[in-house]
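Researcher: Going back to the complex we discussed earlier. I've cleaned up the inputs and rechecked each line, so this should be the final set. Can you rerun the prediction on the complete assembly and write out the structure?
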Amino acid sequence: MSSARKVLIVGGLLLAAFGMLYGLHYAVFVEHQTLDRMGASLAQAFASASQRDTVAAHGAIDAYAATKYNYVRQVDVHSHWIGLGMLLIVLGAAFDGVALSARLKTWLAISLVTGSFVFPTGVILQTVSHGAVYASTLAIVGSAIVMAALIAVAWGFSRVEQS
Amino acid sequence: MSTQVGSTQIAETFAPMSARRLLVFGGIALIAVGMLFGDIFAVFVLHQNGGQTGQALLSASEAASAGNTLGVKQAFERIGGLLEDHGTKVDTHVHMTDAGYLALLLALIQPYVALPQKHKKTLARLFLAGGLLLPVGIFLIHYVGLAYSPFAAIGWASVLADSAGALLIVVLLAEAYGLWKWLARRAPVDEPDFPDSRTWERRTLMSGGTILILLGFLHGGWYAGVDLYRHEAREAQILKNMLDAANNGGAGTVVQVASYGSLAAEKAVKIAAHSHVIEFGLLAMLLSFVQPYVFLSERWKRRWVLLLLFGSFLLPLFVLLELNLGLVAGGIADIGGVLVIVALVAMLVGILRYSGHLDAADGAVR
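Model: Rerun complete. Updated structure for the full complex:
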């Protein structure tokens, strides 16, 4: 097995396992509490409105929005880590079909694994500090690395082997 | 020219009732059924459910406007039920197709799982059973509820789904153990790798699948950069406007509920387009591996490959266009889904033909 394939398959398995463990931790310790908070904030907002308390109603909507901001990103991180892990495994199984040099393929594999880890990490860091520029930058850089590498891989798949 | 049934090299990789064969058949069948369910859900449930949820939200606003706290509570209970109905159906679709993807992925790595053939076969059967029972359990959650359940918050359907999910995790752990054995010992296993052919079908599915995934990533990046924060701010603002309208005697509530519905629809189609184009890309890549087993003429094999890729572009594109073109685009998107299902079933038939010929030639069928 080539080093590029090993990097992709082992990297993909580790990433998928990491994403699943994160999901398990999230489902057991965080998700239900988060959903309860979201539902309660929304119901509270309408209940406050029914009592003509506009300030409390708006406050409850802000609380709902803040909780949902975190929820969306936490679920996205879980699904993106696992999805990217699966993609890396599939690419690893097929990487011999990429008609590019072995050295370039190894670099592409390393880029794919690095980008796949960095991109969701940037997304989860956005929950630490809402709207943080460094977190968004990390997510953009990670996804750009994955996309650039995928363009090269697609080109490699479509080429007919010269040797 | 058809696939060479007699090719010993390819035949060795597809032994009768082997774990790989079970996973390939079961995986494609799960994906096809999961997609069919998704199409039926999109046509008969999705829009109706959205309309009912909007009505319930309007009832909550009207109850708030009338100072009726009990009415607010009842409306939110109704919304909870509708969201459960919607959520469990989406989850049924997603879990069945994803279990199929995982089955195909497991079929790919079988040569690297250093376990006895007998155990691999048992694991494959258990995985397929879990992959079927998990979505069935999820689907039943909304209908079974807490009937005859000894638990306070968990119904029998949830128990079935959770047990099936646990079964899948156990099988995956066992497969990971087999992989670890292979990696640690570097011992060869008694199973050849998938045929390494660079045929037109395989290259087209691989490059087409990668491009689909790339398009999905680009769209996802665009959505995250341009729409996500705007949508989040809009949702909070609409809800505040809705409550203000309720406080002011209900004038304008209907408009705000309609805005909320439009926003929910916009978010849903953009996320659905993003996830579907990536999933179809992954499916195309996975199907590229089984092309040597599709026992059809080259012309028909190519037709099914092109149909699959065409449907895979059509569905997410017209899901996105639903915002502008309405139900017409929705109908075209559903046709895209049907095209993918037809191509998938055609490939499955080709693989069944291949295995039938193979088994008959080997005398395995008696």
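Model: Worth noting: Chain B has two domains: 19-190, 198-366.
Researcher: Good, that matches what I expected from the previous run.
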